[in-house]
């Protein structure tokens, strides 16, 4: 079975946690643009140096940079059976690029899963994560800014995918296993 899935939702909704489980359950790679950027920051690559400025400010990395990184990643062999995108697309220009990449391969997205969680909950989770993981973009003011950017630039993408009949909304609050089950049943 091949599946091409997008996981969308505000910072702190639990996309990364669920992406790892879904990848395992479905046998497809989880591709997280945030993780790829963080690996580049850690490795001090040119891409990492560029991305870090935006990430630390809670801003999106410019579309041209993100788009070409994703195009390269999707061209790798393991993505031929399907993939789960976590954190991409986040802007309407990224939606267009993804459409173009997939159309060139004669494929398309099958499901867009929106993981929902209210603002107080996600802020609390991100502040707790700041304590344990020490991510440089998890300070309270940067968190608030990331949430504003999400609402302004990414939330509207759910309307695009709803109009294509692809949107599945899943409550991101509750037990982690239950949420995985909810997502799996939403795409069955
Ligand atoms: P979160 O969604 O929890 O904020 P991510 O790990 O998904 O965290 O992303 C961290 C940062 O990486 C974002 O704030 C942004 O700067 C950058 N980033 C990740 N994905 C994208 C994307 N698709 N477009 C632009 N920037 C991105």
TrEMBL record:
<feature type="binding site">
    <location>
        <position position="38"/>
    </location>
    <ligand>
        <name>AMP</name>
    </ligand>
</feature>
<comment type="similarity">
    <text>Belongs to the adenylate kinase family.</text>
</comment>
<feature type="binding site">
    <location>
        <begin position="59"/>
        <end position="61"/>
    </location>
    <ligand>
        <name>AMP</name>
    </ligand>
</feature>
<dbReference type="GO" id="GO:0005524">
    <property type="term" value="F:ATP binding"/>
</dbReference>
<feature type="binding site">
    <location>
        <position position="94"/>
    </location>
    <ligand>
        <name>AMP</name>
    </ligand>
</feature>
<dbReference type="InterPro" id="IPR027417">
    <property type="entry name" value="P-loop_NTPase"/>
</dbReference>
<dbReference type="GO" id="GO:0044209">
    <property type="term" value="P:AMP salvage"/>
</dbReference>
<feature type="binding site">
    <location>
        <position position="174"/>
    </location>
    <ligand>
        <name>ATP</name>
    </ligand>
</feature>
<feature type="binding site">
    <location>
        <position position="135"/>
    </location>
    <ligand>
        <name>AMP</name>
    </ligand>
</feature>
<keyword id="KW-0808">Transferase</keyword>
<dbReference type="InterPro" id="IPR000850">
    <property type="entry name" value="Adenylat/UMP-CMP_kin"/>
</dbReference>
<dbReference type="GO" id="GO:0005737">
    <property type="term" value="C:cytoplasm"/>
</dbReference>
<comment type="subunit">
    <text>Monomer.</text>
</comment>
<comment type="pathway">
    <text>Purine metabolism; AMP biosynthesis via salvage pathway; AMP from ADP: step 1/1.</text>
</comment>
<keyword id="KW-0547">Nucleotide-binding</keyword>
<feature type="binding site">
    <location>
        <position position="129"/>
    </location>
    <ligand>
        <name>ATP</name>
    </ligand>
</feature>
<dbReference type="GO" id="GO:0004017">
    <property type="term" value="F:AMP kinase activity"/>
</dbReference>
<dbReference type="Pfam" id="PF00406">
    <property type="entry name" value="ADK"/>
</dbReference>
<protein>
    <recommendedName>
        <fullName>Adenylate kinase</fullName>
        <ecNumber>2.7.4.3</ecNumber>
    </recommendedName>
</protein>
<feature type="binding site">
    <location>
        <begin position="12"/>
        <end position="17"/>
    </location>
    <ligand>
        <name>ATP</name>
    </ligand>
</feature>
<comment type="function">
    <text>Catalyzes the reversible transfer of the terminal phosphate group between ATP and AMP. Plays an important role in cellular energy homeostasis and in adenine nucleotide metabolism.</text>
</comment>
<keyword id="KW-0067">ATP-binding</keyword>
<feature type="binding site">
    <location>
        <position position="146"/>
    </location>
    <ligand>
        <name>AMP</name>
    </ligand>
</feature>
<dbReference type="InterPro" id="IPR033690">
    <property type="entry name" value="Adenylat_kinase_CS"/>
</dbReference>
<feature type="binding site">
    <location>
        <position position="33"/>
    </location>
    <ligand>
        <name>AMP</name>
    </ligand>
</feature>
<feature type="binding site">
    <location>
        <begin position="87"/>
        <end position="90"/>
    </location>
    <ligand>
        <name>AMP</name>
    </ligand>
</feature>
<keyword id="KW-0963">Cytoplasm</keyword>
<keyword id="KW-0545">Nucleotide biosynthesis</keyword>
<feature type="region of interest" description="NMP">
    <location>
        <begin position="32"/>
        <end position="61"/>
    </location>
</feature>
<keyword id="KW-0418">Kinase</keyword>
